[in-house]
């Protein structure tokens, strides 16, 4: 950065005074070449769309945000769009480096859908990812990564006194993104990017369907778990944001999109320590897969 203020706060991993800033810092770089930040006119922000970042990663919770932020290096920028705050850093790779905008938007399909459209408005990026954790439904173990090739909205249906009749909707990521995700799985290079301690069993990655709703499913005998098995039989994981995210991408034609999830708990055996122990691990694995994907992905547009 040349020190010119373009309406985005600029951050560095180390400034001229030797002050270090971690991935989650929001401390403005106070090196002598950087002026105090100011808010540029909105026309200036619109003129720069598409240049601040060529990829956007959306997360729901703090552990997911921290896992992705750990892969980014400075100089860091901060950009706001309709109240959503993005931290922009560089994702280095063996094949390319990208400027990546990272945001945390909270749980739920509605907010996830809004976040994709807002990211497109702010940056016109090549690709938008939702990266985070999920519960394993079947055929996966803790720490595995699931990339959704389809996401089912399992809560849509008709319920009466006798039964629930599913009318599940399906959303899909872009074909180009799924193809590259399959290639990342085949290459088996992504575990080398994991920044946490290695597990006794190396994590696996799958490109499989995922179910999405607004409930936390914490027991395999729960009514929702039974409905998942009945109506979303090939879903291997369940989460809370992917359907809204991909539905928004579908409505915003031309946006390459993908949902990447690390398995942080299973429908059986979940206890109070599960989130504390496994959420950071699962989030780190999902972030590592996302970093490998972004190193390789090229949009067809």
Automatic annotation (TrEMBL):
<dbReference type="InterPro" id="IPR035994">
    <property type="entry name" value="Nucleoside_phosphorylase_sf"/>
</dbReference>
<feature type="region of interest" description="Disordered">
    <location>
        <begin position="1"/>
        <end position="46"/>
    </location>
</feature>
<dbReference type="Pfam" id="PF01048">
    <property type="entry name" value="PNP_UDP_1"/>
</dbReference>
<protein>
    <submittedName>
        <fullName>5'-methylthioadenosine/S-adenosylhomocysteine nucleosidase</fullName>
    </submittedName>
</protein>
<dbReference type="InterPro" id="IPR000845">
    <property type="entry name" value="Nucleoside_phosphorylase_d"/>
</dbReference>
<feature type="compositionally biased region" description="Low complexity">
    <location>
        <begin position="32"/>
        <end position="43"/>
    </location>
</feature>
<feature type="compositionally biased region" description="Polar residues">
    <location>
        <begin position="1"/>
        <end position="29"/>
    </location>
</feature>
<feature type="domain" description="Nucleoside phosphorylase">
    <location>
        <begin position="55"/>
        <end position="294"/>
    </location>
</feature>
